[in-house]
């Protein structure tokens, strides 16, 4: 018997044969939704054998070149769902997003390797309140974390925070909130223990402060109706741009939190929202 399986060929929507690179699978796009000139989300079918921990990311690409460009994308959907959802930025000349922003249902997206990441419950010591702090597409991994019943086993309350420039950019978190609140099963296990806090920094919106300023001033705890912050009890996950990460990490450390990892759980964890 041959040890080398035959290369897997797929047909792209424009009818061309495409040979899957080693270690990749091709999944069909089932829906696409655009929220603003810069942000959109899309769903693909979930391969039956694909498992991930909430908060992890996976490498994705498109079957549009002999050597496709792969980028890390956090999974925004629940780890029990039958689809995988991604929340993406559109970069005009971005090697991947320039093409990805044009995908339609029926197109193929490539997934390479296993999911990994540090924004996982296993990298945090259990605690009282869990703060999920994000800007822009940095909210994506928290989409899966807030839909995981295990999150509510380990934390009494969860606060999901996203800062964007415009109100349209908050469209994804707003529609996710509506979806979860309308779903009896999900509302059942969340049981009123999830608080949403959004801010738009460049347009009128009830809160216009950056997540970092809300944290520094302590307003974040007042607005979310939570107890004063206690580093012995409270935990944070951070995901956003490089500048936001650096600033938020410094604030968390100054509040007495200690960065955790998969091998050494701590009291806060950080991941960069990558992608171009
Ligand atoms: P602002 O409008 O005040 O720049 P970007 O698209 O540049 O990543 O920004 C997304 C959101 O994150 C914007 O609301 C922006 O606010 C905010 N932001 C930018 N830099 C930081 C930072 N260092 N810390 C916190 N929020 C930031």
Structural write-up:
With 276 residues, this protein is of the alpha/beta class. Helix content is 22%, strand content 31%. The strands form 3 sheets. A 6-stranded antiparallel β-sheet has the order 6-5-8-3-4-7, with no helix packed on it. Strand 12, helix 8 and strand 13 (268-272) form a beta-alpha-beta unit. The longest helix has 13 residues, at 242-254. The model has no long low-confidence stretch (mean pLDDT 93). The protein binds adenosine-2'-5'-diphosphate. Adenosine-2'-5'-diphosphate binds next to strand 10, helix 6 and helix 8.
Blueprint of the fold:
Elements: E1 9-11, E2 17-19, E3 24-34, E4 39-45, E5 57-61, E6 71-74, E7 83-89, H1 97-100, E8 108-116, E9 127-135, H2 140-145, H3 149-154, E10 155-164, H4 171-182, H5 184-190, E11 194-200, H6 211-217, H7 219-223, E12 235-240, H8 242-254, E13 268-272
Parallel strand pairs: 9-10, 9-12, 10-11, 12-13
Antiparallel strand pairs: 1-2, 3-4, 3-8, 4-7, 5-6, 5-8
Helix pairs in contact: 6-8
The chain binds adenosine-2'-5'-diphosphate.
Q: Kindly state the mean pLDDT as a whole number?
A: 93
Task: Count every beta strand, where a strand is a DSSP E run of 2 or more residues.
Answer: 13
Overall 3D shape: globular
Q: Which ligands are bound?
A: adenosine-2'-5'-diphosphate
N-to-C terminal Cα separation, in Å? 43 Å
Give, in order, the helices and strands: EEEEEEEHEEHHEHHEHHEHE
CA-atom Rg in angstroms: 19 Å
What profile does the largest beta sheet have? 6 strands, antiparallel
**In percent, how helical is the residue content?**
10-25%
Oligomeric grouping of the chains:
single chain
Q: Give the strand content.
A: 25-35%
Adjacency order of strands in the biggest sheet: 6-5-8-3-4-7
Q: Which consecutive residue ranges, at least 5 long each, have pLDDT under 50?
A: none
Number of helices: 8
Secondary-structure-based class equals: alpha/beta
